[in-house]
């Protein structure tokens, strides 16, 4: 018998007891008519969300920050973040650092189970982190770089032994990096996890059609199931913005992200429009590994090429704000000095291009954009024309995996219209946008020593230390200065929903579905 199989056998008695208890509970519910998430007299509720599908349903191979919104349907993370960025219990009911800050022990809630019925215990958490660190196609390796080894100290105590001091860990594991998957599912068929998640989140998957939709049912074993009031959850790819309002009116879906230009139409149609703070920041991502951006003079010229206010006015209809960094104003990581480094100056951009040997019309580049970013690409194209740069636009269709393979993995574009929705920790976000393996670092693996050193200082500074924010802002500045990418504007969540949906739970970095109610 293999080591993994032995562990499962050793835990079989406890698993059987949990399943037996769950069976008795389900039997009791079946005996009472009309039982649902809303109470004994309520009808079963269904919510339809038009959003996007994840790049992978496996947290280890999921590639983008946006995926947390969908991955968290099926998975629960070790911790969670509230609207103010505070770290709260989730699968782990508590955690504690060693005195030297080089070890952190998480204590799990007792009797947790995955949706396949196997225990979510310290061994399962250990196996997940080890897979995240070693699996060849893992996208968690850079996030877990400061984790040396993991030990299961008891059924509920698991310790992350660190390579050095890192006080970011409790917040780090509030997202995909701590979204624990079933050890058995990964052992049996790890590739299947990318299309069929097995976690311990609020919902259990029942159907998945790639590039189309996924259907879930409520998971009664979710640790916070009492606050989930949705029985069936239907996730689908967002429709064309032109049909979005009509789709909610018709009941094809209940909740969707709304383009700012559609706010008045949605309100006039009787829909609820929610505008809430987010960490979303859009950028013009530049590849310093490809000509002409391998010339620092061209990179510097593009620093002055973009009128950020035009993006704000046209795309966000004034709901957003200009920014030159991957954090919105008001966020603790936002560094006011960064927004003073470069201003919109097309004449200066022209002169820098001339110094680099490019006259009016000599330079032609390709702008790569997802179809939903076409407007941003057109604005960039117009502004580049004002500095004498010609450009073409290459659009990636919705639902396509081309963006992930060509942009995030192969890093093929010269220039791309992209953006970050933020992460659970600012260090995590800085790694994603500027780190050597950063998914959105189009110039990867380029990352300056000054940036990496500043990032390490942030890790080593306790979050309640008076110098923490200054260290964080220094890291942001170092990242901006070393990268050719230009961040352009921040934007809030703008969500349209049916009047039958109440209490939308929008955190700055992600959707949550606790406390959301649906009137059928």
UniProtKB/TrEMBL annotation:
Signal sequence bounds: 1-35
Pfam families (alphabetical): SBP_bac_5
Keywords noted in UniProt: Signal
SUPFAM superfamilies, A to Z: Periplasmic binding protein-like II
Solute-binding protein family domain: residues covered: 87-433
Entry annotated with the keyword Signal: yes
UniProt-listed InterPro entries: Peptide/Ni-bd, SBP_5, SBP_5_dom
Residues in coiled coil: none
Keyword Signal attached: yes
UniProt superkingdom: Bacteria
PANTHER family per UniProt: D,D-DIPEPTIDE-BINDING PERIPLASMIC PROTEIN DDPA-RELATED, PERIPLASMIC BINDING COMPONENT OF ABC TRANSPORTER
Protein name, as recorded: ABC transporter substrate-binding protein
Source organism: Herbiconiux daphne
């Amino acid at each position: 018998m293999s080591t993994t199989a032995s562990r499962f056998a050793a835990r079989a008695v406890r698993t059987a007891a949990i399943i037996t208890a769950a069976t008795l509970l389900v039997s009791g519910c079946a005996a009472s008519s009309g039982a649902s998430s809303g109470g004994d007299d309520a009808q079963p509720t269904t919510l339809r969300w038009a959003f996007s599908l994840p790049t992978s349903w496996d947290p280890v191979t999921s590639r983008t920050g946006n995926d947390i919104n969908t991955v968290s349907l099926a998975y629960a993370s070790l911790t969670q973040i509230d609207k103010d960025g505070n770290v709260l219990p989730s699968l782990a009911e508590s955690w504690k650092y060693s005195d030297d800050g080089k070890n952190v022990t998480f204590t799990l809630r007792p009797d947790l189970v995955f949706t396949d019925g196997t225990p979510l215990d310290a061994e399962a958490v250990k196996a997940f982190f080890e897979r995240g660190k070693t699996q060849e196609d893992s996208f968690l390796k850079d996030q877990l770089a400061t984790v040396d080894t993991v030990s299961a100290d008891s059924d509920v105590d698991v310790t992350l032994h660190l390579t050095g001091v890192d006080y970011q860990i409790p917040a780090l594991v509030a997202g995909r990096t701590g979204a624990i998957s079933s050890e058995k599912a990964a052992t049996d068929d790890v590739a299947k996890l990318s299309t069929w998640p097995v976690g311990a989140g609020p919902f259990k998957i029942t159907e998945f059609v790639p590039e189309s939709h996924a259907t879930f049912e409520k998971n009664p074993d979710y640790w916070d199931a009492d606050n989930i009031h949705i029985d069936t959850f239907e996730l689908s790819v967002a429709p064309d913005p032109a049909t979005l309002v009509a789709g909610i009116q018709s009941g094809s879906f209940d909740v969707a992200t709304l383009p700012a230009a559609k706010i008045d139409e949605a309100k006039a149609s009787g829909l609820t429009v929610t505008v809430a703070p987010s960490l979303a920041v859009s950028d013009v991502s530049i590849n310093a590994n490809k000509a002409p951006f391998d010339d620092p003079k061209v990179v510097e010229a593009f620093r002055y090429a973009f009128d950020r206010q035009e993006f704000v006015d046209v795309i966000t209809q004034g709901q957003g704000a200009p920014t030159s960094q991957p954090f919105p104003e008001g966020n603790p990581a936002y560094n006011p000095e960064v927004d003073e480094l470069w201003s919109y100056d097309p004449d200066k951009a022209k002169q820098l291009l001339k110094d680099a040997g490019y006259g009016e019309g000599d330079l032609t580049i390709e702008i790569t954009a997802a179809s939903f970013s076409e407007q941003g690409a057109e604005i960039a194209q117009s502004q580049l024309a004002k500095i004498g740069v010609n450009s073409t636009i290459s659009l990636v269709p919705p639902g396509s995996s081309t963006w992930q393979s060509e942009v995030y993995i192969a890093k093929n574009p010269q220039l791309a219209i992209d953006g970050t929705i933020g992460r659970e920790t600012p260090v995590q976000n800085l790694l994603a946008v500027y780190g050597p393996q950063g998914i959105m670092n189009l110039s990867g693996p380029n990352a300056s020593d000054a940036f990496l050193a500043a990032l390490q200082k942030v890790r080593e500074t306790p979050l309640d230390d008076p110098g923490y924010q200054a260290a964080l802002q220094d890291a942001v500045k170092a990242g901006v200065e070393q990268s050719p990418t230009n961040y352009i504007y921040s934007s809030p969540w703008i969500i349209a929903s049916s009047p039958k949906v109440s209490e939308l739970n929008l955190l700055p970095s992600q959707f949550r579905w606790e406390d959301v109610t649906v009137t059928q």
